């Protein structure tokens, strides 16, 4: 009996591992058909210039609405797409759709709109990435200066080394490069200097610490100053309250993005963001 109990002790853990593996496998199979079945869509979250409060552009965020399971978070399915290679066709679709929609936004509402698109390291380093980007820009007629590529800082530094020539090509065309989730990954500030990024996005983790008595404010303020001294612009993400916005203004953070200012919305709701409020 003791033996039995001993064996069972490990079951809950094994079972949850098993469930996790099964769910991953199932999601991967479903994700294989997501594009063909039109289950993917983009939401657009506005980004604002801190000083003036005017719109700068949007970040495109992918959504997967499965007919049976409902909405599945990109935090769950993007890693699966990366592991399976599905990120290549999905990422191409995202880029094309985001560029098309930005072209429409520019024509109808805001000529200077910049569209930020998240790109996975796997996608960037898969063959033919720069050619794919050039093709999409050509096809959609969007100017390179109206496109910003966001790369997450959590990609290993060795990947950044092999990515440098690609990033330089993209930057040479006038595409803006932004380092996402800054502060959560590996890159040191000295390393940053060697990478051709124009913008750095301070992760929401730091923004959440603002105004808490933990020294978080001092770190964020110092970060903004340092990034400016390295010649880059700063976007703060995850602004949820007025106090955070007030501090970021005071510290000359260039752009802001967050639920306080605007949630990610489907394209149909984008025009409303340009309507003058009475
Ligand atoms: P991210 O690029 O750092 O995007 C910001 C995330 O924060 C988004 O989550 C956004 O909805 C959320 N967010 C925005 N404002 C606030 C706020 O005020 N408070 C809080 N708590 N959250 C806020 P989402 O859309 O769930 O995306 C999660 C991550 O998935 C993204 O993080 C990005 O890394 C990845 N992702 C999303 N779309 C794509 C895509 O098209 N391609 C790739 N490769 N990755 C994507
Ligand atoms: Mg992003
Ligand atoms: Mg990210
Ligand atoms: Mg981020």
From TrEMBL:
GO terms for molecular function: cyclic-guanylate-specific phosphodiesterase activity. Keywords: Membrane, Transmembrane, Transmembrane helix. Residues 24-278 form the EAL domain. Coiled coil: none annotated. It comes from the Bacteria. This is Bifunctional diguanylate cyclase/phosphodiesterase. The chain holds residues 205 to 482 of 482 of the full protein.
């Amino acid at each position: 009996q003791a033996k039995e109990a001993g064996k069972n002790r490990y079951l809950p853990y094994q079972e949850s591992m098993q469930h996790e593996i099964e769910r991953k496998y199932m999601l991967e199979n479903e994700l294989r058909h997501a594009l063909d079945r039109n289950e993917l869509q983009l939401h657009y979250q506005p980004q604002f210039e801190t000083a003036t409060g005017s719109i700068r552009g949007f970040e495109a965020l992918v959504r997967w609405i499965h007919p049976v399971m409902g909405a599945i978070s990109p935090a769950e399915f993007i890693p699966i797409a990366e592991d399976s290679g599905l990120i290549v066709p999905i990422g191409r679709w995202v880029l094309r759709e985001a560029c098309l929609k930005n072209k429409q936004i520019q024509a109808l509402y805001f000529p200077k709109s910049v569209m930020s698109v998240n790109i996975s390291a796997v996608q960037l380093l898969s063959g033919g990435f720069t050619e794919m980007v050039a093709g999409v820009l050509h096809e959609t007629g969007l100017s390179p200066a109206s496109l910003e590529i966001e790369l997450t800082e959590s990609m290993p530094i060795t990947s950044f080394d092999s990515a440098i020539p690609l990033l330089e090509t993209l930057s040479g065309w006038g595409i803006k490069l932004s380092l996402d989730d800054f502060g959560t990954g590996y890159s040191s500030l000295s390393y940053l200097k060697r990478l051709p990024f124009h913008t750095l996005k301070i992760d929401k983790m730091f923004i959440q610490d603002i105004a808490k008595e933990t020294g978080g404010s001092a770190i964020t303020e110092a970060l903004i100053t340092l990034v400016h001294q390295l010649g880059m612009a700063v976007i703060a993400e995850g602004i949820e309250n007025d106090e955070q916005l007030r501090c970021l203004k005071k510290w000359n953070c260039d752009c802001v993005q967050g639920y306080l200012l605007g949630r990610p919305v489907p394209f149909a709701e984008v025009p409303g963001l340009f309507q003058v409020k009475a």
